[in-house]
Amino acid sequence: MNIYIHEDFVKEKERRAKRLQTIGMVLIGISFLFSFSTLLGTATILIFLAYPFLLVGFPLWTMGRSAQRRLASSPRADNLLNAELKGLNNKYSLHHYVKYGDTWIHHLLITPSGLIVMQSSDAVGPVTCTGSDKGDTWKSPSNILDRMTGLKPPVGNVTTELNDSVAGVQEIVGKIGKPEVPVKGLVLFTRNPDVQVNGCSFQGIPMNEVRQSIRDLQQEMDDQREDQRDVSTLLTSDDRRKLNTFLAPETVKVAAEAVASRR
Predict the structure, then answer these.
(1) Can you tell me the distance from the alpha carbon of 142 to that of 243, in angstroms, rounded to the nearest whole number?
(2) Which pLDDT belongs to residue 150?
């Protein structure tokens, strides 16, 4: 299996965590400055101004620090997924954290049958999803304290995020002249929680079930294809090569061009 990773996504998460922590520290500092000024006999109203800065700054600082700690200590989703899919042959390519327009595509598996877009989440279980006319509702047991400490990240609206990623990948396959190639979506939970999905747009699974789910999705794509000889819905080796070239990180493209020039 060919594996590509765009480190910009990870770096952006690290920068965001540092920004949150820095902003929080600045706001806490302003709060203490107001409080200290009151002790020196300055206008008493400053003590009332100190509280809003503290109430906003402390949670931001805590969330930033927790995010940094989680990034440093928790196994990354891309490494977990690489381990689960280890052994797939070179007809498969796995791209991590591709940015297309304003959308971050967490994980994209290119297979001969089609493409599988995967959205990863660190939410802990039990995780439930209920589908309705108004859309999917994902839930996991967490409160504001859990989120601030980083112990239980919220599940969020993974359906919306995955819909954006799938739409982006559909545009990408259109660019190589294969708009009819099937694109499937899958939600992965890295902490292997209990997941219950009822009538939702996408299947949600713990990471340790991803290999079997990918086999099932490939079989589903093959079954939906009426004519197995219709190459418009298949990804040939040339198609897969074009996709890998289009999606590869810039460092890989530059290295490939350098090798080609030496030849």
Answers:
(1) 39
(2) 60
Q: Please give the C-alpha separations between residue 140 and each of 2, 143, 243, in angstroms, as whole numbers.
A: 34, 9, 35
- 65 SS3 class: helix
Q: What confidence score (pLDDT) does residue 262 get?
A: 37
In 10 A of CB 59, how many CB atoms? 17
Tracing tokens 């765009």 back to the chain, one arrives at: 6
Find where tokens 């009822």 sit: 198
Structure token pair of residue 57: 């700054």
Contact 71, 17 (CB under 8 A): yes
What are 190's two structure tokens?
Answer: 């890295």
Name the token pair of 132: 């309705």
pLDDT for res 153: 74
Per-residue CA distances from 215 to 12, 42, 95, 116, 137 (Å): 32, 70, 18, 11, 26
Q: Which residues of the chain have pLDDT under 50?
A: 253-263
Contact criterion met (CB below 8 Å) for 94 and 81:
yes
Nearest to 106 by CA among 56, 35, 166, 146: 166
CA atoms within 13 A on the CB side of 109: 28
Q: What is the pLDDT of residue 253?
A: 43
Name beta bridge partners: 139.
Answer: 128
DSSP 130: E
Residue with structure tokens 């820095």?
Answer: 22
- Domain borders along the chain are 4-73, 76-262
Helical spans, DSSP H, in 85-228: 144-149, 158-175, 210-224
CA distances from 184 to 7, 89, 112 (A): 24, 20, 13
pLDDT of residue 215: 94
Inter-residue contact 19 to 67 (CB < 8 Å): no
**What local confidence, expressed as pLDDT, does residue 73 receive?**
58
